[in-house]
Amino acid sequence: MIVRWLCLTTLVLLALSVPACKGDAKSQIVGKWEATITHKRTGNEAKLAWEFLPDGTFTAAPLNDSGTIVDKDKYEIVDNGRSVKIRSQLIEDGTCTIDRGTMTGETRGSLVKFKKL
Q: Which of 22, 45, 75, 90 has its CA 20 to 30 A from that of 16?
């Protein structure tokens, strides 16, 4: 009887911990970030302000004009919370690796670096 109760309790705790882990990964990136997008061929850089929202969407705007949205779409946490897949015209639907307050990625035509603000 006690063994059955312990097994049931363990299963319930495991079921509750899985959503908590997923929420934690998203909470790492929710907020404002500064993105530097470097074109591989020319070396030209563009700096943008990105805001990742809790509902799985983001907005991107010039650093000096946050009222002018230049891109808005969805993002998805992948690879057990280690990466974020960004559906964006600016970075060619890139995937970035999350490392605390930074994210980095590479697409066919550019390098992308995010720094949390």
A: 75
